[in-house]
């Protein structure tokens, strides 16, 4: 039986594109309106695992998702980086000269602002999702209307790409994490990256002590993200992503930072993701 993957967004979304790259095409999807629903479905074992965006190279971290992962009993077992390519999609047989309206998610419209500004006569309509915009155009047979979306949406909804790569920044990447129930997650072979949470005693220099011990073991701290610690005013959890050469390095650094942290929780040990 094909594995079932929970993703945030609708059919044809960038989450689905990323999932196809990571898992292959022999999978089924459970589309979720929110990231909370992704976590709920994975936790309740309605799906085999989930895929959720965690940060974007332009927009930055998706802070609520760090909090979701910290609270859930989930394990990070992989990651994938996806270059976000936005295209202009229309019903077959139409062209740029036919466009009166352009529909898409506000962030997608913003990412394509330079291209869209060249066509001041186009009315921009904000929607809840890029791929859903394309689907609605297909189902409602909206002529004169284009959607800003990815190539998978064009494939799934039989639409033409009338303008490729209309985004303003070519270096727009989103990082996605693969999450599973902790009890079901199996050790990842040849792991070279770990995600963990920790918090310190909130004294001067406490965080610096942790960072120095990580650096002393020759580990690359590729991500450090703070977010509020519930119930403790102006105190923070820290999410850290560590890249290492062998498992012993990770074991040593976890021993090293234990005395200078109040708590440490390893969220996952996995392979550094590929970029597509």
TrEMBL record:
Organism field: Hymenobacter crusticola
Report the catalytic activity. prephenate + H(+) = 3-phenylpyruvate + CO2 + H2O
Q: Which CDD domains match?
A: ACT_CM-PDT (cd04905), PBP2_Ct-PDT_like (cd13631)
The name under which this protein is listed is prephenate dehydratase
Q: Which residues form the Prephenate dehydratase domain?
A: 4-181
Q: Which Pfam families match?
A: PDT (PF00800)
Give the record's keywords alphabetically: Amino-acid biosynthesis, Aromatic amino acid biosynthesis, Lyase, Phenylalanine biosynthesis
The enzyme's E.C. designation: 4.2.1.51
Q: From its record, what is one biological process in GO terms?
A: L-phenylalanine biosynthetic process
**One GO MF term:** prephenate dehydratase activity
Domain (ACT): give its ranges: 195-271
Q: Which SUPFAM superfamilies match?
A: ACT-like (SSF55021), Periplasmic binding protein-like II (SSF53850)
GO cellular-component terms in the record? cytoplasm
